[in-house]
């Protein structure tokens, strides 16, 4: 029945939307607007495929894979290559990196500079503590690719974050 399907999907969305937005925000390097768009695209795709979603052995994996696919689709759009979303209009100049800015801002910027698949590997492996196998499943690649992508990403993140002073933190 369509009514049951709608009620089940509605319950699913209520229980998972906040987590999806968090994950999408991380995957987009902190772009909250793009994250909301990705979640909406993901939920639309899930609604259309709802019977298949319910039959899936690993609903979380299905959800992650759909979100990554939505990000990949979004990055392929021609206008995304020419514009960058910003939360605030640039009425004033921003502080220079390394001028005492928040480390979270530095991490967000460093994540944003990673290629999308590399960023996704880091987000799933380290922010969500997924195994290499689960990350490979979410990204649709081999476990070796996940290992190499995360190693390269961590090297890039270390280099990018080296320019931000860590105050009060012992290395």
TrEMBL record:
Residues 107-157 form the RNA polymerase sigma factor 70 region 4 type domain. Keywords: DNA-binding, Sigma factor, Transcription, Transcription regulation. Residues 24-80 form the RNA polymerase sigma-70 region domain. InterPro entries: RNA_pol_sigma-70-like, RNA_pol_sigma-70_dom, RNA_pol_sigma-E_actinobac, RNA_pol_sigma70_r2, RNA_pol_sigma70_r4_t2, RNA_pol_sigma_r2, RNA_pol_sigma_r3/r4-like, WH-like_DNA-bd_sf. GO terms for biological process: DNA-templated transcription initiation. GO terms for molecular function: DNA binding; sigma factor activity. SUPFAM superfamilies: Sigma2 domain of RNA polymerase sigma factors, Sigma3 and sigma4 domains of RNA polymerase sigma factors. The keyword Transcription regulation applies. Pfam families: Sigma70_r2 (PF04542), Sigma70_r4_2 (PF08281). It comes from the Bacteria. Belongs to the sigma-70 factor family. ECF subfamily. This is SigE family RNA polymerase sigma factor.
């Amino acid at each position: 029945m369509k009514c049951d399907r709608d009620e089940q999907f509605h319950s699913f969305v209520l229980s998972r939307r906040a987590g999806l937005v968090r994950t999408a925000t991380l995957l987009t390097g902190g772009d909250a607007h793009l994250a909301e768009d990705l979640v909406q695209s993901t939920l639309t795709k899930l609604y259309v495929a709802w019977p298949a979603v319910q039959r899936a052995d690993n609903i979380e994996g299905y959800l992650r894979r759909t979100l990554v696919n939505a990000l990949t689709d979004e990055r392929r759009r021609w206008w995304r290559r020419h514009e960058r979303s910003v939360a605030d209009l640039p009425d004033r100049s921003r502080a220079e990196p390394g001028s005492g800015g928040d480390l979270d801002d530095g991490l967000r910027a460093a994540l944003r500079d990673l290629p999308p698949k590399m960023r996704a590997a880091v987000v799933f492996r380290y922010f969500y503590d997924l195994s290499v196998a689960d990350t490979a499943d979410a990204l649709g690649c081999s476990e070796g690719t996940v290992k190499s992508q995360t190693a390269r990403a961590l090297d890039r993140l270390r280099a990018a974050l080296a320019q931000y002073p860590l105050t009060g933190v012992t290395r």
